[in-house]
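Repro:
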Amino acid sequence: MKINCIAIEDEPLALLKITEFVRDVKYLNLVHVFDNALEALLYLKDNTIDLVFLDIQMKGLSGMAFLEALQSKPKIIITSAYDEYALKGYEFDITDYLLKPFTFERFLKSVDKAYNTLYNREKNIRTDYIFLKVENRLEKVELESILFIKGMSDYLQFVCAEKSIMTLLTFNEALELLPAENFQRTHLSYVVATSKIDNIERNRIRIGKDTIPISDSYKEAFMKHLKQYKLLL
């Protein structure tokens, strides 16, 4: 399966590097390149693309402004020399964040991640459960039972209807296991199952007896998620 992609980059050398890397990956097809985000945004209104390589600091429309204005939902891989945009980028559900200068190996890992996500979605490969590593065993967890996930130092606590499970995962790794339409991050330390929300009041979510915070940095992305999946008008 070919992945049709575009690159948005205003630095000629950086764009050349992306072009060369794309050429070396057989399943990537570079359809177009842009040196400004506004032209790319207009292009995407009439053309369907699977993957976008996006710089952040550009003249005119910035990469972040591009993400805010984007109507379609291609996979996004940010390519930036600045790491301070990473957290904000993940609020837009980006696939990966490549910090310049990056190697071909790091690039390949990133596009493989995009490929696997796109392929699995297209083939509707989805189960109703996942397995989490707990000490020396793999624990089966029904997706429907998960209420929310809480970050605790190096571990994540999966709070379920009848049990809680501690596992050594990052939030990004956990979100790769979960269907994006059902789970959304609300805080640096929390992910919630949207179907389990009882009510939302200001910057707090109630799920049963538990209160989960919505931080200012995640609130906009959380509300966009609810609207995107027709959970809020």
